[in-house]
């Protein structure tokens, strides 16, 4: 695995000058993943923040072959590109020599958990050789901060507004990483950009494996989380330290917890940092909901610890 100095010295394949918001978690995720292999890369992105902000005509932030898919079909697109590559390779018709090519699809939680899930599930089941990366910021941020199935319970969004009728999103978030692992893929993992070493190691491993692999990476969104951009690194770190976003991997069916906080922080400490949860700190009803969420986080974390080292 490369050192931070070695990674910094590598060519930037996702350039500056894009229109992503200050403090957005997506750029460091994309930059690090693209630097986690020496092979050539072909990438695609679903409609979303990354696509819109990196490809405003006539400009592009991508220094690799890249294409924009519709909201729902990034996994299908990369499947087709990878299949075409295999055909050309078999026919000895590849341009540019025999250097290995890796295929990566990027999508937000809206384009992955929800709209793009059918295409993703199909690509995983067919066994295409590609890496799918979900940058999870917990809502449809690009189109107005609408709820997704990744949105945290009781979080305020424009389609689940905290008020007199409902106290934010009512449902618990979907556990997509475990759902992907249930497809019997060779590798699936959760990561966070604040822990660059863990994210790089997982991306390097995922890109080296033959078969469909998946990374679910928590991504701060100052706009939708109602936070300050300069604090984004701390915000995703707190998500990990509270065990709301545990770092783990499932390789060939065996689950491994990669990080166990020495002093697990209460979920309320993370929620206090974000304006989308401010309604939970106003009255006893909100306090009761915080207790409920803490109990669920504790239960999920213990379940993960019980599975540590086991084959699923």
Explain this structure to me?
The protein is an alpha/beta fold and 312 residues long. It has a single domain, classed as Thiamin diphosphate (ThDP)-binding fold, Pyr/PP domains (Rossmann fold, 3-Layer(aba) Sandwich), CATH 3.40.50.970. It contains twelve helices and eight strands. The protein has helices at residues 4-9, 26-34, 49-54, 74-90, 109-114, 117-126, 176-181, 196-208, 222-225, 232-241, 267-271, 284-307, and strands at 40-45, 66-68, 101-108, 131-136, 187-191, 213-218, 248-251, 254-257. An eight-stranded mixed β-sheet has the order 2-1-3-4-6-5-7-8, sandwiched between helices. Helix 3 links the parallel strand 1 and strand 2. Helix 4 packs parallel to helix 6. The longest helix is centred in the last third of the chain and has 24 residues, at 284-307. The model has no long low-confidence stretch (mean pLDDT 96).
Whole-angstrom Rg: 19 Å
> Could you give the order of strands across the largest sheet?
2-1-3-4-6-5-7-8
CATH class: Alpha Beta
Along the chain, the helix and strand elements come as HHEHEHEHHEHEHEHHEEHH
**Continuous helix count:** 12
Cα distance, first to last residue? Answer: 27 Å
At CATH level 2, the architecture is 3-Layer(aba) Sandwich
Total beta strand runs: 8
Do you know the CATH topology? Rossmann fold
Structural class: alpha/beta
Helix proportion range: 25-40%
Write down the overall mean pLDDT. Answer: 96
Q: What overall geometry do the principal axes of the alpha carbons give?
A: globular
Major sheet? 8 strands, mixed
Q: Enumerate the spans where pLDDT stays under 50 for 5 or more consecutive residues.
A: none
